[in-house]
């Protein structure tokens, strides 16, 4: 099935708009389950017809059967009334089941679509969006739609059909009493319109407040160790309460409007019945042939009024539900409308097929914010196939930014970053991210491990690789991680959330195994051993040596052993390459690299024989 958001995006414009515009944009998702929707909607005329028929049968029983003393006809009317009740109940049951099934299936599709979309969003989106906000949109906002689909929009259609059928029956019976009964209609319209607009605003504020509070909660739980170490628990609770107060105020106001609308509708209903009795009572004492008003007719109209005000009264609750859903839809549309990263079309050829790792960078400039200062300010360098190039520099010099550009984690660079493929030079910005990352992989200092087994954390569920335990084992052996994995129980060993069951070095080895299992053409090591413990230092270094063989490598602020092994070293300072060349040449030059060597690398060299954890140059 084609992605519904692709068909609907841009057709309705911005997500902000009327309630029906928001629901109309949502319709393509629901249309995927149209069989259940149509079954539920086909029950609408049945429910409406039975609702209009029952008061008519009451009138028949009072004015004809009882008035004439016809017991047999009264029993027949009673059986017909029972059949109408059973038909209405059965049709309502089928409708509720069908719409509920369609609604939950639609929500499942939407949840899957949003999750897939979020995973394709670029890094700049996550820089400006708290994770708690994404969780709220992907869970509570979507859940708000489920109730609307099952008991909101489509049941309102039923209510409208019931109201129209009742009004038609009332006009058919007596147009004068009908007009008296509808005297409060203009007042009802004003009330509903006013309350509807206010409820929508409040529900949007509720969703926003809930999102902010959820984001704060997620952040504080992630940093709970820091809070405990510095005794900030009470301050965190107070801030959480302050954010909760904003949510509570909006909920209280929304509940007041909801309850007010419900009570006003109930009062208007009682007033209309009173008006009907007041105006109809005198006609009951006149000749029926002249007035046309009978006791059965009055009973039927009272029944009709009670029936017509039930959906109108419940409309207030359904209206609040719809407003909650529309508020959620607007937030969801804001997420869906975020442009995702491009993907290689199915069946398209790989533009980097046969690429051997050659890279050419010319006048590379990059900044994280539009209009802000550049982090990289005109960098030039080359990487030949199979060459190891190290990048060193102080904090803020742009080392990590360089790796992010080469993997297209961030876009928007100026200048040229071209890959020397067999068919000719290919600009990095012209290669879709998923294709580029099939050839260029990065091992970062901050290793993220999932709360799953070792096999998943190496394969990440990739088709083919996940089904080849021998290939996963070979990757673990390559980086010398198989020994400790086997001691812990093998590939089925669960590493725990963020790898809490492993040491920093063991976690880093699993990160190297991910790369070894995929054999990239260009490998980027971004401070990949800065936090490694000394017990596994030799294993990590051996793993790096094996990964470096036969491929192009960009090493960022790495250990001395790897930096000295590099064919070329780039020294970055304030976003500019100030020096480049082999280790011995740069050291003899006595410039920036020599200073970094004295500050960090030299101490590591001196401490290497003692087994102490060596420092690294400032990143």
What does this molecule look like?
InterPro entries: AAA+_ATPase (IPR003593), ABC1_TM_dom (IPR011527), ABC1_TM_sf (IPR036640), ABC_transporter-like_ATP-bd (IPR003439), ABC_transporter-like_CS (IPR017871), P-loop_NTPase (IPR027417), Type_1_exporter (IPR039421). Its main location: membrane. It is found in: Cell membrane. Residues 46-324 form the ABC transmembrane type-1 domain. GO terms for molecular function: ATP binding. 36% of the residues are buried. The protein is elongated. Mean pLDDT is 79; it is low at 1-16 and 602-619. The longest helix has 52 residues, at 233-284. Helix 7 runs parallel beside helix 8 and helix 8 (153-173) crosses helix 9 (175-181). It has a six-stranded mixed sheet with strand order 6-7-8-3-9-10, sandwiched between helices. The chain has helices at residues 4-8, 19-31, 34-66, 71-119, 123-128, 131-138, 140-151, 153-173, 175-181, 185-222, 224-229, 233-284, 288-291, 295-336, 399-406, 433-436, 454-459, 469-478, 482-487, 504-518, 537-548, 560-565, 583-589, 592-607, and strands at 359-366, 376-383, 388-393, 414-421, 424-427, 440-444, 522-526, 552-556, 568-573, 576-581. It contains 24 helices and ten strands. It has two domains: 14-336, ABC transporter transmembrane region fold (Up-down Bundle), CATH 1.20.1560.10; 359-610, 3-Layer(aba) Sandwich (Rossmann fold). It has 619 residues and is of the alpha/beta class.
């Amino acid at each position: 099935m084609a992605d519904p958001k692709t068909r609907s995006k841009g057709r309705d414009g911005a997500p902000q708009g009327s309630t029906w515009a928001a629901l109309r944009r949502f319709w393509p998702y629901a249309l995927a389950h149209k069989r259940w929707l149509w079954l539920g909607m086909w029950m609408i005329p049945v429910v409406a017809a039975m609702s209009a028929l029952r008061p008519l049968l009451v009138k028949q029983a009072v004015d004809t059967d009882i008035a004439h003393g016809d017991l047999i006809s009264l029993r027949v009317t009673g059986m017909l009334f029972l059949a109408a009740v059973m038909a209405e109940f059965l049709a309502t049951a089928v409708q509720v089941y069908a719409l509920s099934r369609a609604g939950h299936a639609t929500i499942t599709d939407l949840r899957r679509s949003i999750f897939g979309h979020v995973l394709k969003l670029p890094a700049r989106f996550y820089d400006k969006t708290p994770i708690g906000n994404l969780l709220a949109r992907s869970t509570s906002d979507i859940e708000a739609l489920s109730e609307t689909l099952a008991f909101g929009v489509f049941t309102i259609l039923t209510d409208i059909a019931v109201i129209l059928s009742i009004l038609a029956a009332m006009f058919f019976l007596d147009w004068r009493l009908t007009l008296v009964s509808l005297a409060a209609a203009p007042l009802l319209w004003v009330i509903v319109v006013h309350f509807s607009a206010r409820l929508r605003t409040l529900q949007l504020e509720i969703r926003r407040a809930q999102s902010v509070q959820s984001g704060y909660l997620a952040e504080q739980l992630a940093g709970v160790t820091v809070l405990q170490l510095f005794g900030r628990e009470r301050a965190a609770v107070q801030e959480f309460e302050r954010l909760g107060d904003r949510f509570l105020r909006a909920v209280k106001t929304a509940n007041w409007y909801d309850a007010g609308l419900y009570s006003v509708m109930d009062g208007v209903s009682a007033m209309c019945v009173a008006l009907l009795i007041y105006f109809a009572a005198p006609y009951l004492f006149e000749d029926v042939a002249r007035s046309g008003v009978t006791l059965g007719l009055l009973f039927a109209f009272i029944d009709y009024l009670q029936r017509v005000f039930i959906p109108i009264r419940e409309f207030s609750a359904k209206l609040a539900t719809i407003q909650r859903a529309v508020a959620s839809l607007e937030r969801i549309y804001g997420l869906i409308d975020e442009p995702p990263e491009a993907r290689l079309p199915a069946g398209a050829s790989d533009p980097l097929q046969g690429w051997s790792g050659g890279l050419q960078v010319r006048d590379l400039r990059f900044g994280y914010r539009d209009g802000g200062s550049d982090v990289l300010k005109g960098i030039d360098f080359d990487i030949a196939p199979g060459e190891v190039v190290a990048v060193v520099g102080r904090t803020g010099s742009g080392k990590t930014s360089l790796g992010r550009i080469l993997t297209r984690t961030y876009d928007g660079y100026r200048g040229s970053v071209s890959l020397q493929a067999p068919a000719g030079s290919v600009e990095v910005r012209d290669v879709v991210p998923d294709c580029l990352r099939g050839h260029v992989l990065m091992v970062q200092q901050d290793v993220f491990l999932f709360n799953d087994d070792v096999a998943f954390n190496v394969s990440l569920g990739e088709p083919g690789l996940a089904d080849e335990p021998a290939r996963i084992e070979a990757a673990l052996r390559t980086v010398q991680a198989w020994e400790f994995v086997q001691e812990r129980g093998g590939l089925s060993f669960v590493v725990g959330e963020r790898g809490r069951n492993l040491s920093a070095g063991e976690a880093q080895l699993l990160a190297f195994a991910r790369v070894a299992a995929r054999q990239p053409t260009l490998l980027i090591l971004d401070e990949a051993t800065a936090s490694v413990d000394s017990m596994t230092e030799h294993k990590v270094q051996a793993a790096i040596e094996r990964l470096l063989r036969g491929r192009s490598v960009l090493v960022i602020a790495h250990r001395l052993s790897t930096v000295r092994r590099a064919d070329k070293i780039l020294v970055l300072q304030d976003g500019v390459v100030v020096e480049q060349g082999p280790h011995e040449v740069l050291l003899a030059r006595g410039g920036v690299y020599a200073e970094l060597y004295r500050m960090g690398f030299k101490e590591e060299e001196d401490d290497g024989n003692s087994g102490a954890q060596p420092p690294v140059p400032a990143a």
